[in-house]
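Input chain follows. Return structure tokens only.
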Amino acid sequence: MNMVIVLVLLVIPDLPVTQGEQWTAGRTKCRGGALCARRQNPDYSWCYTDYSGGWDYCCTAECTYVGDTLKCASGSRSQYCGNTRTLDIEGRPCLPTFPCGVHYNELKERDFYYWCYVDLNANWGFCCAPHSKCEKGTYSSAWCYIGADRSNKGWDYCKPEDP
């Protein structure tokens, strides 16, 4: 009796990158032909993310943890580039190489939301903001803010990470 052992290696890419693409600190792809650079303001690096003026900061060094938040250098400033939340609001695990981060939403100008990729097919889900816990409070269903700051009213229902 012969036995055959098959070893399967799963490689999870950091980002679906093609030659010449660049990504922002918020992990949004720079628009075609746009490169991360210091422009009018030399304090930080940034790129355009769409053709209607949307833009985001770029990292000039690797993201590293500062407490439970991922930050990176962007010129002479520090930029947010993710947090340690590992599930989206539906309870699906984020890809280990793509934790929840803040990204520009081209459909709603100037609104930034937390989200992550949940599989290698580019499916994604919103995440609770670091300043917002997924809980019921005085409401019948659990919810959290998904907007990047407290003034952004973006929220959604969620499944608590710690039931």
